[in-house]
Amino acid sequence: MGSSCSSGQAHKDKDSVSTRSEESTACCRSPSYQVSGKKSSQQQQEADRKSKKQQQHGNHSTSLPQQPHSGVILEASTVVAAVQQQLRGNNGGGGVQVESVATPSAVAFERKPTKDGLTKVRNIATSSISADSMSLSSPPGTSVQSPRDFDKCETSLPQEVQQLPENLQNLLMGRVASARTTTKTRKIVIYVCAADSQDCCIEKGMLHNAVYPTFRDYCRRQGYELHIVDLHWKTGLEKQQDHEFPELCLGELARQMEVAYVIPVLFLSNSLGTPLLPKTIEIQDFEMALSNADNKELLQKWYKLDGHAQPPCYRLQPIASHIPGFKENSPEEKESALNEWRSEIERTLAVMVNAFPQELRDTYLTTVVEQEVHNTVCMSQELARRCLWLYRVCAPAGGQSQDPPSSGEIELRRRLEALHKDLKNQLNEKHILRMPVRWVEGGLDLELPEHAQYVSDVTLQLNKHLQALVDTIIEEDQTKCVLKSSYGIDSRLFQELMQQTGFCQRAAQCSINREAVLQEIKSYVVGESQHPLVVYGPRGCGKTTLIARAAQCCHTWQPEALLVVRFVSISTQSHTTEQLLKSIVDQCSLLTYGQQSWAVHNIQSYTELLPRLLAASCIHRPQVIMIDAIDQVKEYGTQNLDWLPDKLPENVKIVLSVADDSLVFTEIQKKVKNLSALIPMPALGKLEAQSILMASVMQYNHSVNSRVQDCVRSSVQDCTLPLYVKVLAWQTSWWTDKDHDIVPKGNVTDQLHLMLEELETILGKERVEHALALVTAAKTGLSDSEMLDLLAHDAAFHSQATYVLWAPGCLFWARLNKYLAPFLLWSSVDGLSTLLWRDDMLYNAVKQRYLGDETRRRWAHQTLVNYYQGKWADEQHSGMTGRRLLQPDKTSKCYNRRKLDELPFQVFWLCGSLKEEFLYNHSWLYVKLCGSDVYHVLEDIALEEKSLVTNKGPEKDLLFLRKFLEECSCALAYDGRQFYSQLYGHLSAIFGSHEGKTPFHEGDLERKPSSSESIWESPEGYKFVRELYEVCCDPPVLSLLPLQPLVGGSAGSEEGKNVMDKLSVSAAAASSGGAVEVEDLDQLCRFDMVTRLVDNPDFVVTVSTEREEISVWDAHDAIPVRTLVGVTHPINLKAIDDTRCVVLCRRELRIYDLDSGEFVTRLKGVMNQKMPYYGLHDRGHLVALSRNRMYVNLMNLESGDCVTTFKAGEDRFLNSLLVSGDGRVLVCGDETQKPFPLLVWNLSSRKLLYDLRIPHHDFVTSLAAITHEGHYVCCVAKEVDEPCPNFIVVYDLQSGTLFKKWKPGVNTVSLDISSRDGCVISGLEDARILVWDLVTGNCRWYLCGHTAPVNFLRLDSLGGTFLSADSVCRDRSLRLWDLNKGELLAVYTPERPVTSCEVTRGGHFVVLALRGLSHITTLQLRGPQVDISVGSENHCYGHPENLGKTFDLRDEVRAAER
Q1: Of the four listed, 404, 850, 980, 1271, which is most buried by Cβ atoms within 10 Å?
Q2: Cβ(1365)–Cβ(1352) under 8 Å?
Q3: Where do the H-state alpha helices sit in 1204-1354?
Q4: Half-sphere exposure of 1 (CA within 13 A, CB side)
Q5: CB 812 within 8 Å of CB 797
Q6: Is the pLDDT of residue 1012 over 60?
Q7: How many CA within 13 A on the CB side of residue 499?
Q8: Spatial distance between the Cα atoms of 1288 and 401, rounded to a whole number of angstroms
Q9: pLDDT given for residue 1054 in this prediction
């Protein structure tokens, strides 16, 4: 393992700010803010009053009252500290604990990381909000100016936000117009293009039945959806040879390209397929063709001038206008009409071929496959790069007709050759699959061995190339498109903001004139009102588009404003009030403090936190929150507005929209007393509605005859709602090429039902009923591949006429999406795309129509239950090979998110309860917490609780489960794998640990709970909870279990303040001459360092600088066995052996005996003020950097004398000191020379071995490590002149040569090396950890999971495991890794930020020091194949008679100093 690089790093930065801060009690005055000009005495008094008010508020520990929110927000200056504290969750519960606040003239110390622990000291001005010390004074500007004068105090965004890419900053700040959004999801689509669907049906069948299932499973294991679109099955629609089928194909292609990575697979050989007549011809082109045509009557028969089109053109007439049989339902008449139509096509095309020049033939004459190739390969280099072309090469048949080809055949052959040429130029040569096969009469025959071999070869080639393409897409998506967590910000918030902003941008593109209402919203946003603004109106009146436009204009009205905009129910994170408020609070918290909130996930918590957060955030910039359709939250969440404050602070605006017939609006009317805050949506005027209607009609159709125009224009006399106009205009597009009467109904509901009736007429009543019932019954919508699976197993979508049985389902789903396109919405569920209803009114209409009947509702839910339970996977039907899908909870490392979210919901609505199968099943809870999130589990509980309230009342087990999940929601949302860890920590306080050290008492369940505890009434009724505790004692997965209860004994209570705390406080006061005033002991209940002993893994040592205390702890029981108080300002400690240690006390090195609690000696000399570095040579000597940093002293630990010195030369200043674990090798950095060298000494021979340099590069010596035996040293280096990411170098110190060099491409922020494991470990700025093999030089493992830069690494002394963390606690979780397997062993997120940590006993124990706690916390690794007896044996530290003693060393140290 690597030795520490900077032993005295804790002292370094402190000294760099002020020399006087260490040696004098007087502190430099650091004002909270600066304002140009002098303040009047009245202003000064006001400033002092506000500062005093805030200080009084912050210096007392308080809990927020658990009562309904009063609706009035506190003033900003009184709540900043409380908000900061609750966001960090320092008291581990739902209440808020406020730490003491320094006066403006004081200097606070902020902890920063060191290699030996998680903290070091930094001198900061108290005007800043400290990320660790939580010490702050009045926020800038509060003492001298109103919050509205934000422009006078230019406050930058938090550093965490500033480090984000510009686009993510725009998303967080709500800059809708500037943000770049993408709708790409983790979806891959194979789009099949086929010239002759009957000729290549066998090859396509193999793609569906043999290739697709394999790759679909492969993609699922990677977390991606694989869908296949194939509309070429020679169905009736394709046989019509009109333009509905090609438009459908191109529309479906465009729909998939919007959200997916498309792989075109082209089946094209010697035919272009069926030719089509052009749909429209420009006037001049038609007149020219007419003049050249030999059959003018035929052209004039099928093409008529369309004067309503823009621009006017000649349009192909409906087929039925000249062939009446085309409209008949009789198969015989329909077939006869089709034959006649084919004849008409051939004749008309022959005329056009002769009449059009080649340029116009290329423009107007086309086939479906030509259009598909044009829209994929020719229009997109990306699609061309992915396209696969299967080209079947076969010898021409003998005895073929020798008749000369017709002009039409010649034209088709010419275009085919041109298409082949274009494909060869555009496609990658390896993607052109030329497959030779012998042609026989009747096509492919799988009974022939050579044909069977051909099909096998086709399958093999498709597998090979699709594998490469899928891997490339996944790699590209992961690298460029996936939003990843960074700087402690959860990627799910980025995903939500991307989805909300994208929806807002699209919704804002509306032509409806709402300028008057927009002006009212603008006046509110820039005005002085301190009440929420509510926009209300009937459903479908355009409230969503209004809010979207207002959001887009917001930064025009208030350029410096921070905007939070949400549209309810367009994403899973906006379905419930709780989820909605969480994302809003997280966004506001990030913009104010640079971190997400750490709050209990319930309405009460957010009701208390949101007002305080808004009051703090508005100090720097205006804050605007816009929420659309707040009345549309789902039934599995809270449906009230208790969280909405009646009065807002200055600079904060909240705009809501709500339907006027909802219960929420009734509640708003009671809550909002100021009637001017309620703005009605004005109705559209009839002329305006007509204008919008006709504009929409032309947009959807490009041409509508005058009869239809008159019909729909008159309909808006009865209803002018924008949704009604939209529905009516869209209906006209269904019948553009058909003679059909539009029937306006005069109201939205009836018009929606008419639209659904017509949809049933077009697509089939039974099919529409089944499909829409399934879409509507799903909780979060259905994906394309899921819907195709469901339709494939429905007999209504089967056909014996197609090669695959379920082919009609493919065509139907594409047509359904085409006909309902404006009313469907893509939604991303953790990166997977599903379809939802865009309009709530249509959702309700569909639900009433297709799920209103109990039988049909139960059928829909049962079908979805069968699907997600995988009951269809065992079907033996050969035609279902491609649509049989197993539904495991987890595949490889990827969970089945869709099943985890949907199955409990469907079971509940089918059976009325889900608790026995899911909620009281700890295995399911664990899987869902890992694969979905804790918020969806809470939604399941909400459904069950509503059912219980209706039936028999709440259950205690369920109540406990909900309370536990709410309290631990942040930790479990971060990583569900700590479910058993968190649960054990909560239950061990009640039931006692399995060792019996904390026995269970009946009264524990009956006691009055603290703010951080769940509500317990009596021991009866907790059967499931008891079972959970028994499981947690021996968890089924590896877990870090806290051996000390997480709840029960609150650290802030009087009982929790032990004698040691009081003695420490008195010692601190005495050492500072009584100048320290402590209002809250949590200020001093802090350990700055935790370190293990040399040989005894059962005990650890802690250092508390402020309390001037060193303690030895029993790591297993978290009991102090020795305590030394009165140690003069201990900064750093190194264990010499199990009893002696050397301690850096200010600028001196002192030796203490930890067993006897004695001060032994003081080493001569004074350490450097900024760089007090030292390290052990052996148990009798140490090396330390001299005061002037020009040489290194070798000190005798017995006498304290300097034995010898090491010096590299004149005027060379050393800036680091690194000693190998065995004490033989010393490495120092030299900051004088350019470039910075590394100097290597042999401490045994006391000689300089090497002067290591890299031209034009500097070593970052703070990031360096050395192996225990000193054979290798690794260090981070950077280029001097180029702003490139730094890189890692490894030197072989036996030869002095550069051994390895690695460039991760991202800055390395932590480093360690292990000769035992043969590797170097580097923590990166992008939150990854890379493990490099010292032998091969390859990257052995890529380890992911952290959400912030991993700047803390700690190897276990026995090797094989290491601990990783973010020392700044942006990501407060700890991760324990297996170096041999490259796997995560366990993860744990404590309730409080970590100040220091240590790993011992081969990774079996992790010891934590948590902010505000007066004791350490020990985590034990338990689970399968873990010996839990490790560390449980009896052990004793030093002499038994000293057990538990506290030694006061103040007099002893003073005597030694004299």
Answers
A1: 980
A2: yes
A3: none
A4: 20
A5: yes
A6: no
A7: 29
A8: 73
A9: 36
- Look at the block and give the residue holding tokens 């739902």: 94
* Helix (H/G/I), strand (E/B), else coil: 1249: strand
What residues pair up with 1119 in beta bridges, in sequence order?
1114
**What gap in Å lies between CA 1229 and CA 1239, rounded to an integer?**
6
Distance of CA 251 to the CA centre of its chain: 31
d(CA 42, CA 27): 27
**Tokens 């003033």 appear where?**
75
Q: Which of 642, 648, 640 is nearest to 612 (CA)?
A: 648
Report DSSP letters for 240-267, one per residue: T-SSHHHHHHHHHHHHHHHHSEEEEEEE
Who contacts 915 (Cβ-Cβ below 8 Å, separation ≥6)?
944, 955, 958
In angstroms, the CA 580 to CA 778 distance is: 20
Paired with 1287 in beta bridges are: 1277
Neighbours of 765 (CB within 10 A): 12
Task: Give the separation between CA 851 and CA 836, rounded to whole angstroms.
Answer: 16
Which position has the token pair 């953790």? 830
pTM of the shown model: 0.86
**Of residues 513 and 1182, which shows the higher confidence score?**
1182
The answer to whether the CB of 1228 falls within 8 A of the CB of 1189 is: no
The tens digit of pLDDT for each residue in 182-237 reads 888 999 999 999 987 777 889 999 999 999 999 999 999 999 999 999 999 878 78
Residues comprising the chain, all counted: 1458
Residue 284: burial class (beta carbons within 10 Å; 0-12, 13-18, 19+): exposed
Q: Are 754 and 743 in contact (CB under 8 A)?
A: yes
What's CA 558's distance to the chain center, in Å? 29
Q: What pLDDT does 1042 receive?
A: 93
Average pLDDT of the chain to the nearest whole number: 82
Q: Mind giving me the DSSP string for 1156-1195?
A: TTEEEEE-SS---SS---EEEEETTEEEEE-TTSSEEEEE
Show Cβ contacts of residue 348 under 8 Å, excluding neighbours closer than 6 positions: 277, 298, 299, 302
pLDDT of residue 951: 62
How far out from the chain centre does Cα 1034 lie?
31
What are the structure tokens assigned to 604, written together? 């009460």
Residues pairing with 1276 in the sheet: 1260, 1288
> Which H, E and C letters describe 791-822, residue by residue?
HHCCHHHCCCCCCCCCHHHHHHHHHHHHHCHH
CB 972 within 8 A of CB 982: yes
Query: 1408 with 1401: CB under 8 angstroms?
Result: no
Contact 588, 623 (CB under 8 A): yes
Rg (CA), the chain: 37
More confident residue, 697 or 663: 663
For residues 50 and 137, what is the distance between their CA atoms, to the nearest angstrom?
10
HEC string of 133-189 equals CCCCCCCCCCCCCCCCCHHHCCCCCCHHHHCCCHHHHHHHHCCCCCCCCCCCCCEEE
* CA of residue 154 relative to chain centroid, distance: 31
Closest CA to 200 of 377, 404, 462: 462
Residue 398: is its pLDDT beyond 60? no
Task: Report CA torsion sign: 291, 294, 297, 303.
Answer: negative
Is pLDDT of 11 > 60? no
Using an 8 Å Cβ cutoff, are 959 and 1015 in contact?
Answer: yes
- pLDDT tens, 1231-1278? 888 888 899 999 988 889 999 999 888 999 999 999 999 999 999 999
Which of 916, 832, 909, 828 lies closest to 865 in space, CA to CA? 909
Q: Which two tokens stand for residue 488?
A: 């402690």
Q: List residues bridging with 194 in a β-sheet.
A: 267
Inter-residue contact 376 to 264 (CB < 8 Å): yes
Largest Cα–Cα separation, the chain:
123
First to last CA, the chain: 40
